[in-house]
Amino acid sequence: MTNEESEQEIRIQKVIANAGIASRRAAEKLISAGLVEVNGKRASLGQRMLVGVDELKVEGQRVRLNAAKKSVVYALYKPKNCITTLNDPQGRPTVKDFFPETKQSLFPVGRLDYDAEGLLLVTNDGEFAQQIIHPKYKLWKTYFVKIKGLISPPELEKLKKGPRFGGRLHLPVKVKIIHSIHDKTWLEVSLQEGKNQQIKKMFRKLGYFVLKIKRYSIDCITLDNLEPGMYRMLSSQEISNLLNASAKNIQK
């Protein structure tokens, strides 16, 4: 928190994000679930607090807002059959399992489906996460996708103009065929939205079943030589490049 921020009322979800507990979106879910308290009272969405004056608790734990923290971002190759959360009631593997040695409060930036694999950013910086996952920043995310069936170029044009599912028209998609083998097609698909299960839904709308999804890149950050379960720390330059790209998108 800056001195200026500490002297004014700040939305609670932003305070939680700045403290490195969760992204703003995840913080809103915590508030809605009744897991956030300010001065001993249940917080509400949109509520503000005085940093340095009011007491904030998340899931019963007091948040120390003045503790200095170093922002870090990791690129993780999330394997298949892994949950993009920190805890799972069913006991399935989560992204937290790949960072057993760290004492930092890390959380995933966005999500990948349980059966999808590939690049996932993990951080302790809520403000960074917000600028990467919010739809208004429109960062391109590229996936390798395998579908059952031989899709035709005219059908791909429908996606390029903007897939329609869920009762509305979505942002245009970049898509091209990599190769087809027997009754299966590999494609490269790039999205700016990334709605829940968007790739599965837009191909299902065309009559195709998605067999595999692997996210290869988020703007300038790629998997490189990472293997499933491996991660690397992003350099300050890579983080800066990502934030600059998102800032340029919102100015367009």
Write a compact overview of the structure shown:
With 252 residues, the protein is of the alpha+beta class.
* CATH architecture descriptor name of the largest domain: 2-Layer Sandwich
Helix content: 10-25%
The number of domains:
3
Total count of helical runs of at least 4 residues: 7
Name the poorly predicted regions: 1-7
Distance between the termini: 29 Å
What's the Cα radius of gyration? 20 Å
| Pattern of helices and strands | HEHHEEEEEEEEHEHEEEEHEEEH
Give me the CATH superfamily of the largest domain.
Answer: Pseudouridine synthase I, catalytic domain, N-terminal subdomain
User: How does the overall form come out from the CA principal axes?
Assistant: elongated
User: How many strands appear in the DSSP assignment?
Assistant: 17
CATH topology of the largest domain: Alpha-Beta Plaits
Q: CATH class of the largest domain, please?
A: Alpha Beta
Structural class: alpha+beta
Overview of the molecule:
This protein is of the alpha+beta class and 252 residues long. The chain has three domains: 3-62, Roll (Structural Genomics Hypothetical 15.5 Kd Protein In mrcA-pckA Intergenic Region, Chain A), CATH 3.10.290; 73-135 and 220-251, 2-Layer Sandwich (Alpha-Beta Plaits); 140-218, Alpha-L RNA-binding motif (Alpha-Beta Plaits, 2-Layer Sandwich), CATH 3.30.70.1560. Helix content is 24%, strand content 30%. It has seven helices and 17 strands. The strands form four sheets. Strands 7, 8, 9, 10, 13, 14, 15, 16 and 17 form a nine-stranded mixed beta sheet that branches. Strand 8 (107-109) and strand 9 (117-123) form a beta hairpin. Helix 2 crosses helix 3 (24-32) and helix 2 crosses helix 4. The longest helix is centred in the last third of the chain and has 16 residues, at 236-251. It is elongated. The two termini are 29 Å apart. The model is unreliable at 1-7 (pLDDT under 50).
